[in-house]
Task: inverse folding
């Protein structure tokens, strides 16, 4: 999303309005923009005035124990399950994964969760457990022990002003995590 979607959206805004945009991201939306800025800041500097990051996450606290992720999310693609919580999930997909037992039921038991891809969930798990903002590592490599993907270096971000806002009691993107991200940015 940071590689393609954010850039395409900002380009369209500039084409239609002739003006730079202010990007407002929340949680994963901030992660997407941090990625985009780490890779394409020169291009985005012509498209953006400012980045407002609400609950800015790059290495949030783990929500799922690593063993649970390996026993569920990492097995889903081989079962033909490629999304969580989307249309038909509870009727179709969950029935497929329920054969994995209690771990799958616990991993999939979130009726309030927004739809997402399995690869996205796996990537978040990798970042959370490695405590580093890194590229996705393919499942086979990760479970074989190659757990570190290429580091996404946000230390060079310095052309676009960033305002970061985090809740004092946010348990997913904690103030400590937000401060760590701010400290990494090169501005």
Result:
């Amino acid at each position: 999303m940071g590689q393609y979607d954010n850039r395409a959206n900002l380009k369209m805004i500039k084409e239609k309005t002739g003006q730079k945009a202010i990007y407002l991201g929340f949680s994963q939306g901030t992660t997407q923009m941090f990625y985009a800025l780490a890779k394409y800041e020169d291009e985005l500097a012509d498209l953006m005035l400012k980045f407002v990051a609400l609950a800015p996450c790059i290495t949030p606290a783990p929500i799922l124990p690593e063993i649970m992720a390996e026993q569920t999310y990492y097995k889903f693609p081989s079962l033909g399950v490629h999304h969580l919580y989307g249309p038909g999930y509870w009727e179709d997909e969950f029935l497929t994964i329920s054969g994995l037992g209690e771990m799958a039921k616990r991993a999939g038991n979130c009726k309030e969760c927004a739809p997402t891809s399995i690869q996205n969930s796996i990537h978040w798990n990798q970042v959370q457990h490695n405590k580093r903002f890194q590229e996705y590592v393919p499942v086979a490599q990760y479970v074989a022990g190659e757990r570190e993907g290429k580091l996404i270096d946000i230390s060079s971000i310095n052309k676009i002003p960033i305002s970061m806002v985090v809740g004092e009691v946010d348990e997913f993107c904690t103030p400590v995590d937000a401060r760590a991200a701010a400290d990494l940015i090169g501005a």
In short: The CA atoms of residues 71 and 103 lie 7 Å apart. Residues 5-58+152-184 form one domain.
